[in-house]
Amino acid sequence: MQKSVSGFSKLTKTEKIEWIVNHYLSGSKASKDTLLQYVNSDEKLQQLHDEFIENTISNYYLPLGIAPNFKINDTLYAIPMAIEESSVVAAASKAAKFWMSRGGFKAKVIATTKIGQVHFMFPGDKQKLQAFFNAVKPQLLEDTKDITKNMEARGGGILDIILKDKTSEIDGYYQLHATFETLDAMGANFINSCLEQFAKTFKAEAKNHLEAPVEIVMSILSNYVPDCLVRAEVSCPIEDLKDKNIADPELFAKKFLQAVSIAEVEPYRAVTHNKGIMNGIDAVVLATGNDFRAIEAGVHAYAARNGKYSSLTHAKIENGVFTFWTELPLALGTVGGLTNLHPLVKVALEILGKPSAKTLMEIVAVAGLAQNFAALKSLTTTGIQEGHMKMHLMNILNQFHATDKEKETIIHHFKTHTVTHSAVVEAITALRQ
Ligand code: MEV
């Protein structure tokens, strides 16, 4: 019987599990056992995870895989990826290996500026507001000194604050638009604390110096970071593209460019194309304890920055050289937040050689580019289903708890037959009779 509840957060974990099982899982013992099975027996470790969020009842595992052989700016990386989708790690690994022998990936951080805004309403005179802002700006900076001193000591901090007039869009709407350098931190807490202090000072001073009231609506960082940008690239002479699936490199390069051009002009394709890029990006972002929702939001906004949703990757052929690249915004951190807390995140960062935020931006962009290269290579040559169906076959066999011997026989059978769910079920049933 489903039921509302008050004080749920005050219940112990066992009581929470009891409650959810009784009211939403028809008292199922099997469901309860599953929830309990995923609770870690190491109490300290479990408590750590319990405290990441609220109302924890269990853990939700994702596999952590490794895509090795990534040569990036002449350094070799084995990239940790946390993802549930089959084929992604395999595709990344294949692309890494392909490019390792063709010069590897080149990546470069273009800029690292982050943004936050205080949104406010002011019904009074524009010129007076601008004059007031100019006068109060030094105090806005001064009043955040306690928050910024450590960041400044390391070379970061507030870069600038400007007043933005947005009254053409909403009557009386203005912003304090601030830019920040947060170095190796993602910087969300730092930025939000600075913004809330700006808002306090701004409102208090406005009371004394402006005839109309300043009404603060909200103070919050922006996840749209078009000036926190990284570029990743691969390139080689066209003839070097030859491999076991690319018999005709000229034709491959031509079709590859066509596939990229289609994603550049056709939003339906661009979304799927970019989804493939995010397969690589999110998996590394998640493994390294960063906020993949923030990254997703920012990247997709960037993909639509010219007014039409478009490809995040581009390709060209010039003087017989094939070049494939991406430029995308990634606000990442390698200190603070989950990076200091989650034991697996620490290990993931160690695997990557404890990178700076800038190096992590490069690695993540490369993972996205590699993923897109692998997807387009499959799509324009063998098609995507060949690899997927192999995985699909294995998943079905595992669902049926197939033995190694059964797996061998059935995999052999499907080398010459089309994999469908029903065909695999039939084959297992026949084999077992
Ligand atoms: C699947 O997760 C991703 C792809 O659809 C990407 C693409 O079509 O480019 C294969």
Helix percent reads 40-55%
The total of beta strands comes to: 10
Mean pLDDT figure = 96
Which CATH-level-2 architecture of the largest domain? Alpha-Beta Complex
* Measured distance between first and last alpha carbons: 43 Å
| Individual helix count | 15
Q: What is the global morphology?
A: globular
The neighbouring-strand order within the major sheet is: 3-8-10-9
**Using only CA atoms, what is the Rg?**
26 Å
Low-confidence stretches: none
**Strand percentage, roughly?**
15-25%
* Class derived from helix and strand content: alpha+beta
| CATH-defined topology of the largest domain | 3-hydroxy-3-methylglutaryl-coenzyme A Reductase, Chain A, domain 2
Largest sheet: 4 strands, antiparallel
N-to-C order of helices and strands: HHHEEHEEHHEEHEEHHHEEHHHHH
Question: How many domains?
Answer: 4
- CATH H-tier superfamily of the largest domain: 3-hydroxy-3-methylglutaryl-coenzyme A Reductase, Chain A, domain 2
CATH class of the largest domain: Alpha Beta
* Bound small molecules, deduplicated: (R)-mevalonate
GO biological process, one term: coenzyme A metabolic process
Protein name: 3-hydroxy-3-methylglutaryl coenzyme A reductase
Catalytic activity: (R)-mevalonate + 2 NAD(+) + CoA = (3S)-3-hydroxy-3-methylglutaryl-CoA + 2 NADH + 2 H(+)
EC number: 1.1.1.88
